[in-house]
Write a structure and sequence with these properties.
Blueprint (H helix, E strand, L loop, with lengths): L2 E5 L1 H8 L8 H11 L3 E5 L9 H10 L3 E6 L3 H10 L3 E4 L19 H12 L4 E6 L3 H10 L3 E5 L1 H5 L2 H20 L3 E5 L7 H5 L4 E6 L1 H10 L1 H13 L6
Parallel strand pairs: 1-2, 1-8, 2-3, 3-4, 4-5, 5-6, 6-7, 7-8
The structure holds pyridoxine-5'-phosphate.
């Protein structure tokens, strides 16, 4: 059964709507931990549209569970990560116009740049994950780069329905098994919600699920504690006999 990492970016989105101090993603992260989350994820974007540098520094000081920092492979972000020292970094592509991370990283096409960034982070004691589409060439590139993890992009699965969803699930299952055979550890995330999480949580190689938007939306109705516990219950159903 995978561990749940809660992405609290959208708590910061709400705060930034008024450029004030509430709600505080650092407080939200602590509440997620108290509800049983195994880790916290934030994406420090180049344009700082939601998470701020102060959040990243305070999270490093206060988190009791795993701290996963999502970021682009830029010099600025590598410098911040090496200074702050999250447990994991997930490298993602970043485009200023996008509403959320849209596609996976082109690990194959950007191997020269990533070949510098991956060891620079690992030398600082940080585990490195690459957010990639479930494609063999991307997994092979990630393995060649020496990444510790891949995070399989579940967006196509989450956005599909009926037969198309079954096909996308199969792609994720095949990719997870192939990544494992290449010596990569496997995480998954993007677009996962209360209804679609179970089949992904049931993929045996998947160690961590990164879930953000669905939990923060549900928290607006039922509170963060209950929203996290309900997601943990859905994931628990993937455990043998669950
Ligand atoms: N994983 C990665 C790499 C992401 O960029 C995001 C979105 O920030 C997520 C997981 C979480 O996606 P969602 O907010 O749709 O659950």
């Amino acid at each position: 059964m995978p561990r749940l990492h809660v992405n609290v970016d959208h708590v910061a989105t709400l705060r930034q709507a008024r450029r004030g101090s509430e709600p505080d993603p650092v407080v939200a992260a602590a509440l997620c931990e108290l509800a049983g989350a195994d880790g916290i994820t934030v994406h420090l974007r180049e344009d700082r549209r939601h998470v701020q540098d102060r959040d990243v520094r305070l999270l490093r000081e206060t988190l009791k569970t795993t701290f996963n920092l999502e970021m682009a492979a830029t010099d600025e972000m590598v410098g911040i990560a090496r200074e702050v020292g999250p447990d994991e970094v997930c490298l993602v592509p970043e485009n200023r116009q996008e509403l959320t991370t849209e596609g996976g990283l082109d690990a194959a096409g950007q191997s020269a740049r990533l070949g510098e960034v991956v060891p620079a982070l690992q030398e600082a004691g940080i585990l490195v994950s690459l957010f990639v589409e479930p494609l063999p060439e991307q997994l092979e590139a990630a393995a060649k780069l020496g990444a510790d993890f891949v995070e399989l992009h579940t967006g196509a699965y989450a956005g599909a329905a009926g037969r198309a969803r079954d096909t996308e699930l199969k792609r994720l299952e095949t990719a997870a098994a192939y990544a494992d055979s290449l010596g990569l550890r496997v995480n998954a995330g993007h677009g996962l919600d209360y209804r679609n999480v179970l089949p992904v949580a049931s993929i045996p190689q998947v160690e961590e699920l990164n879930v953000g938007y669905a939990i923060v939306c549900r928290a607006a109705y039922v509170g963060l504690d209950q929203a996290v516990r309900e997601m943990l219950d859905r994931i628990l159903a993937a455990a043998p006999g669950g």
